[in-house]
Structure formats: structure tokens, C-alpha cells
Write a structure and sequence with these properties.
Structural class of chain B: alpha+beta
Helix content of chain B: 10-25%
Oligomer: heterodimer
Largest sheet of chain A: 3 strands, antiparallel
CATH topology of the largest domain in chain B: Rossmann fold
CATH class of the domain at 57-159 in chain A: Alpha Beta
CATH architecture of the largest domain in chain B: 3-Layer(aba) Sandwich
Number of strands of chain B: 24
CATH topology of the domain at 57-159 in chain A: Alpha-Beta Plaits
Order of helices and strands of chain A: HHEHEEHEEHH
Strand order of the largest sheet of chain B: 16-15-21-20-19-17-18
Strand order of the largest sheet of chain A: 2-3-5
Number of strands of chain A: 5
Helix content of chain A: 25-40%
Largest sheet of chain B: 7 strands, mixed
Strand content of chain B: 15-25%
Chain lengths: ~180, ~575
């Protein structure tokens, strides 16, 4: 390949003083000083979370304080990184929610595995698992990064839905026991 | 043109394809031979036909003949014999094939009929699939994908029925899910011969129930759970334990008796959740006793052995093997084999006994057979020991000869493979008098007294073969890995053989079978991988004279009865 020699252009007097460039640089600096900030002072300042954001997956109670999850394990099945582990269990016969029959005995989501895809929320037939706005999960050990059932309900809280599917079921059962609203 | 059928065959035309099927076959089974699925709920191949679910609707027609002359009516357009189609659909399960019969299994009328049936079945269905144990193996779910409407036109209130009725100690009934197919009723009556189930009330109030004062508690009650096409009958043991789609299925053989019931182990990540029967028309049809299903609990039992011990303290396998070999080399040996061990293990134990120059003995386990799927011989593989030559006569329940030999000082070391010597009639003093080398799975009096304990695998954790009461060799596969600290019986036996200076033997099932087929005449020309899943019948004539304890059972007649 041929080599083309280019002669370096000599600097002008003004350029050799550097003053125009210093002035231009300072102009930018002063302009930015009075402009509103575009970055956030994280973690003291937090960004606004858009609707539909997929943060930490959590479990929720219904307005009556019943845990909505019936441990059908569909989320465990669909979870691509296999982050969810459920131990199903039966609700005791003397429990107020005995008519629901099934609930998770233990529910674990490994946040080191979770990829925040939201498939668990999408697949849930009981609308019991919801991805929240919280995005920053930290911990000192691997164990700390596994959310157990207690923690999942702490993070999830109560979902103010108005389906009352299981309440209707209970009402129908009670009506049937007293001779029935049926027929 | 329909080909001339063989005498016992009937040729029918299903969806345009001619097929010859045995006389008496119904349309569902005939269509199955053509890989055509006729959906059904109440029909079960091993039960009588009830015809009450109306799901197996097919369109049926017969070749037209002139009523007066009986001459075939030829369709001018096609030049073939005209088919007189019945204007309404017929049930496939209750329709027996007839020569020349034409069947349509997927015509618009058939689809319409099935969609109608599905809609009625789902009218009162609680749709609690998320909490239903049947989900994933539910016929309603399966057929709803093909024939379901996708939404309900039923705006009235759904039926409310009891959700948690205990029909018996092992079966829970959810009445809302029941579609009244009556399979369980027919099973109890026809197979279990314990007619305790029935329907009461009428119409949508119809309810499955036990006869007053009775319970579904026979030893075959869990078969009703298997054949329930929906989630109405569920196993109390398996209830809410795990969804079935997570479970891996491994073929196994029931270990509770010499019937050799074919079964499936359902496990997930090394944990067994349930055992169900596997269809084998030559052995157990589609049934299995409840008692055999619960044996999976042995695998994770608390008294499972998991540490190699030498004189009561923990040791490594190789140290223990060489110590055991030293004991065995010192002479005055007795070898006790097991009718619960696989053919391969019995073969290696025979080699070991041969190397030591002794004859092995076995421990018999007998109890009353139930004439169905539990035989009097509660060892699954006594015949395997006969086939491999480990023993030549039938075993006794008590090791009286061994006890006498120990008292006389003729035996100083006993190697026992999975047999508790105390249960076989040896006293604690006799156990203390000898050096015991114990290969076994569970802690017992023998393992406590043993000098060397070598923990081995449960049947469900290893591969092998059993020879059942019919001299049918059947194979089983490893479903779950053994606990830490256990070793495969074959590995332990091969190591013992090597430590005793015998020729090297393979310690895996596949490798061992080349030796096995070469040295056991009854198993010549066979290989483990070639044994079909339904087993292979061996020639039993060499042992025909032995007084086997088994009585008659579902698919077995004792030789004496068979002759008579």
C-alpha cells in the first residue's frame, strides 16, 4: 500500500495561546451549572417507574387477607431460569379458608436466578404472583437472595381486586349446606 | 373391495381404511389399531362396557342390500356398494364390529356430538384445575382442547357437592368433579370383588358414595384413582404433593410378591412421589395392589443405612471390602442370598459362593395370597435364584441349618445379602457368635450385630431383572439415585469377588449380561437391553417339579391346577 505523507498544518497564533478553546470549555461548564440536572442522585433519588414495569416478583393477599396462591405450580413450571420452588400443602380443615383446600407450604424465588421476564405473573390462574416496581435486590449471601414465602408476602402486600372468586364459592357451599340457593 | 377375512377376523372400514380385527372387538379398540383416537371416559379396556358417558360417538353404516333379493345395492356414481349410514351417531365402546361395517370417527356429525357431550359435562364442572391433582393427566382437560367450547353458555348456578369425602383410608372423593362414568363402581364390583361403591340420587344430584356402613378400604382401592378419568377420586397419600407434569416416569416391578406387577415410579429430582401400575396384559392388566404402591416409602425411610461401617465405626468402602475379604478367606463361611435381590445380584452372589466353595441359602417369605395380584410368595425373585443356580431347592422361612451350624461352630462368618438373619430365626447369641458381613439397605438386628456393613441400593434405585411366578423375566430401571454413602449391590459384590481373587466381572447390568447369558442356560441368547418392557417368558420345565407355594392369581395358574 502506498504511503501518502500529509504535512501537519501549523497552528495559528490564536490557537497557540489556547485561549479560545479555554473560553469555549468554560462556556459549556457555566451553561451546565445553571441548566436543570439530567442525572439522578441515585440511590437518594429514585427514578419514576413506568406502568407495566417488571420488578421483583411477589405474592399477594386478597382484600380479606387470604393468600391468593393455591400452589398450582404453573409459575414453577413456566419459569425459564427455574428460579421458583414451591412446596404445595393442604389447608387445614378447621381453617377459615379450608374451602380453598390448597396453599403453598413454602414458596421460594431465587432472585439470583430470576430474569424478571414476568411469565410467572402471566401464567398465574389465581392472579397471586405480581411483579412489583422494586428493582434493586441486594444481599450479602446467596441465601439472603432467595425470597421465601414470608418475604414474598411482605413485598407483595394486598391486591385490591374485586373478583372474590373463592368467597363466592364459599357462599355457594354454605347456601347448599342450608338447603341451597340452588334449583 | 373388502378382502375376505380370516375365520376369526372381521374386516371393518374405519375412516376409509380397511382393517381386520378379531371378532368381538369394539369400535374404540379397532380404531386404536389404526392410531385413530376415539375419546372416551366410561369405557375401560379391562372393565365391562357401560356406555354412559356418550363421548365415544362415531358414525356407523352398513353395506346396503336389497331387502327382497339380498343383492348388494351398487352406487351408480362410484360403482361400489352403497353404504347405509345410520342417521344418528352411535357409541363406539358398545358397538361390536361386524363384517363390512363402515365407521367415521371424525366426521362433522361426530365432532358435533362430542362437543355437545363436552358442554354438558362441563356445565357443573367446578373448573378448579389449579388445585386439582388430576390436572395434567385429566381426560376432561385433554378432550376440552379438542372438543371444548372455550367459554360457558351456562349462566345458572353450578351444582355444589361435597369436596373432600373420605371414601376409605386411601381414597378421597371430590364429588363436584365426578362425571358419573362408573368406572370405579365397575372396578370394585368386577375386579376387586368388593362392591362398595354406587350412585345415589338422580339427575345433577347424582353422587358417588359408599354403601352405608362400608368403606372403600380393600387393598385395590387406589386402582379406582388410576382409572378415574377426572379428578374426582384422588389418592390421599399423593394429594397435593406434586403436579404430575414435573414427575419423571421410570418403569419398575412391584417388589411385594412374586406376581411381578408392572409399575411406574413417578419421581422428581431424586424424590419418589408415587407408584402406579403399568399395563401388562400377561401379568397384571392395568391393576396394582395398594400395599405395593406404598413401598416407595422404604427408599427415604429413617432407618436407611448410608454409612459403611467396620466393627461399628465408619470406614471407607475399599477398607471394608478388604476386611470382609479377609474374614471370608479365613474359611467356615455361610452365604445367605435374597429373593428380593435381582437376577444379576443373585448371579454374582452365586459366583461369590462358588469362589468360597459354599452353597448359598435363601429365606422364604410366605403369607396368604389374595388370588389377584399378591401371591403367597412374598419374595419377588425366588425363581431368579433358581434360574441363576444360586439355589436348587425352594427356600425355607427359617435358617435352621445355619443356626445349627453356628451352634456347632461349623460356621464362623456369615455373608448376608439384604436378609435380616434375626428375622430368619437366628438368636442374638448366634448373631454375636459369628462375624457377619451385611450388604443391605435398612438397619435391623443383623446390621447392628454385623462386623462389616456395606449399604446398598433399594430396588427403585438400581436396574436389574426379576423372574416372576410365571418364570417371566421382567426388567426394572433406576428411578432415583441412592443416598450418599450407598453403593450398587453389583459394585459391592464385584469388589468382594475381586478381593477374593476371582476373575474381574462387570459391575453394571449391561456389562454383566454378556457373562450372564453365556453361563446361565435359561438366559442364553438374551441381553438386558433386548428384554421387552412386558417381560420375556423363560422355559420353566427344569423347575416344574418344585412345590411352589403360589396359588391361583389373576394371570397365573399353578402347574398342578393347570394340568388338572
Amino acid at each position: 500500500m502506498a504511503v501518502v505523507t500529509v504535512e501537519r498544518k501549523p497552528l495559528s497564533f490564536l490557537e497557540r495561546t489556547y485561549l479560545p478553546n479555554i473560553a469555549a470549555g468554560l462556556a459549556t461548564t457555566f451553561k451546565r451549572m445553571v441548566q436543570p440536572a439530567e442525572t439522578l442522585e441515585y440511590p437518594e433519588q429514585r427514578p419514576a417507574i413506568p406502568a407495566g414495569y417488571r420488578g421483583v416478583p411477589t405474592l399477594v393477599y386478597d382484600p380479606n387477607g387470604r393468600e391468593k396462591c393455591v400452589s398450582c405450580q404453573l409459575c414453577e413450571f413456566v419459569c425459564p431460569p427455574k428460579a421458583i420452588r414451591i412446596t404445595p400443602g393442604e389447608i387445614a380443615h378447621d381453617d377459615a379458608n379450608a374451602h380453598v383446600e390448597k396453599r403453598p407450604e413454602e414458596f421460594k424465588i431465587d432472585m439470583l436466578r430470576c430474569i424478571y421476564c414476568g411469565l410467572c405473573q402471566e401464567v398465574c390462574p389465581e392472579e397471586a404472583i405480581w411483579l412489583q416496581n422494586q428493582y434493586s435486590m441486594t444481599g450479602y449471601t446467596r441465601e439472603e437472595m432467595v425470597n421465601d414465602k414470608k418475604r414474598l408476602y411482605e413485598l407483595g402486600g394486598t391486591l385490591p381486586d374485586a373478583h372474590h372468586k373463592w368467597d363466592k364459592k364459599k357462599a355457594a357451599e354454605e347456601a347448599a349446606a342450608h338447603g341451597g340457593a340452588h334449583h | 373391495m373388502i378382502a375376505a377375512p380370516k375365520p376369526d377376523l372381521v374386516t371393518v372400514n374405519i375412516d376409509g381404511v380397511d382393517i381386520a380385527v378379531p371378532k368381538g372387538t369394539n369400535v374404540i379398540e379397532a380404531a386404536k389399531q389404526l392410531q385413530k383416537d376415539v375419546p372416551h371416559y366410561c369405557y375401560h379396556p379391562k372393565l365391562t362396557v357401560a356406555g354412559n358417558c356418550r363421548m365415544c360417538m362415531v358414525e356407523m353404516g352398513m353395506p346396503a342390500v336389497d331387502p327382497a333379493t339380498k343383492a348388494p345395492v351398487i352406487d351408480a356414481a362410484t360403482g361400489k356398494q352403497k353404504i347405509n349410514w345410520i342417521p344418528r351417531p352411535q357409541i363406539g365402546c358398545g358397538t361390536t364390529v361386524a363384517p363390512g361395517m363402515h365407521i367415521k370417527t371424525s366426521s362433522p356429525m361426530v365432532k358435533d356430538a362430542r362437543e355437545g357431550v363436552m358442554e354438558f359435562l362441563l356445565v357443573n364442572h367446578p373448573l378448579d384445575c389449579p388445585i386439582c391433582d388430576q390436572a395434567g393427566e385429566c381426560k376432561l382437560q385433554e378432550q376440552a382442547t379438542g372438543y371444548g367450547r372455550g367459554y360457558s353458555r351456562f349462566i345458572e348456578e353450578k351444582n355444589v357437592k361435597p369436596k373432600r369425602t373420605q371414601l376409605g383410608p386411601r381414597v378421597t372423593l371430590d364429588d363436584e368433579r365426578c362425571i358419573l362414568c362408573s368406572r370405579c363402581v365397575r372396578f370394585s364390583k368386577e375386579i376387586a370383588k368388593d362392591d362398595v361403591l354406587g350412585f345415589v340420587d338422580r339427575g345433577s344430584y347424582s353422587t358417588l358414595t359408599c354403601h352405608p356402613g362400608k368403606k372403600l378400604e380393600n387393598n385395590y382401592s387406589l386402582n379406582t384413582v388410576d382409572i378415574c378419568p377426572v379428578g374426582a377420586l384422588t389418592s390421599t397419600d399423593f394429594r397435593f404433593k406434586m403436579r404430575v407434569w414435573f414427575l419423571k416416569q421410570t418403569n419398575t416391578i412391584d417388589i411385594e410378591s412374586s406376581v411381578g406387577v408392572n409399575a411406574v415410579i413417578w419421581s422428581r429430582e431424586g424424590v419418589i412421589y408415587r407408584l402406579t401400575p403399568r399395563r401388562n396384559d400377561e401379568v397384571n392388566d392395568t391393576w396394582m395392589a395398594d400395599s405395593g404402591r406404598l413401598l416407595y416409602k422404604q427408599v427415604a425411610a429413617a432407618r436407611r443405612l448410608s454409612a459403611v461401617t467396620l466393627h461399628g465405626s465408619a470406614s471407607s468402602l475399599d477398607t471394608a471390602i478388604s476386611s470382609a475379604a479377609e474374614l471370608l478367606k479365613s474359611g467356615s463361611i455361610a452365604v445367605v442370598g435374597s429373593g428380593r435381590a435381582s437376577v444379576e445380584e443373585q448371579f454374582l452372589l452365586k459366583k461369590l459362593a462358588g469362589q468360597l466353595g459354599v452353597k448359598a441359602s435363601l429365606v422364604a417369605r410366605t403369607a396368604q395370597g389374595d388370588k389377584l395380584l399378591i401371591s403367597a410368595d412374598r419374595n419377588p425373585n425366588v425363581r431368579g435364584a433358581l434360574v441363576t443356580g444360586l439355589i436348587s431347592a425352594l427356600p425355607a422361612a427359617q435358617l435352621t441349618q445355619l443356626a445349627a451350624d453356628i451352634d456347632d461352630g461349623k460356621v464362623k462368618t456369615v455373608l448376608t445379602h439384604g436378609e435380616d438373619l434375626a428375622a430368619a430365626g437366628l438368636s442374638a447369641a448366634q448373631l454375636a457368635k459369628v462375624n457377619i458381613i451385611y450388604l443391605g439397605t435398612h438397619a435391623d438386628a443383623t446390621s447392628a450385630a454385623a462386623k462389616v456393613v456395606l449399604p446398598t441400593l433399594h430396588t427403585f434405585e438400581k436396574a436389574g431383572t426379576f423372574v416372576n411366578q410365571q418364570f417371566r423375566i421382567q426388567k426394572f430401571a433406576a428411578a432415583v439415585p441412592g443416598p450418599q454413602g450407598t453403593s450398587n449391590d453389583l459394585v459391592v459384590l464385584a469388589k468382594l469377588l475381586a478381593a477374593l481373587g476371582a476373575d474381574a466381572t462387570a459391575s453394571d447390568v449391561h456389562g454383566l449380561w454378556s457373562t450372564l447369558s453365556a453361563s446361565v442356560p435359561a438366559l442364553a441368547t438374551m441381553l438386558y437391553k433386548n428384554i421387552p418392557e412386558t417381560g420375556l417368558l423363560l422355559d420353566s420345565t427344569p423347575w416344574a417339579g418344585l412345590p411352589f407355594v403360589e396359588g391361583e392369581s389373576l394371570k397365573y395358574k399353578p402347574a398342578a391346577l393347570a394340568v388338572a
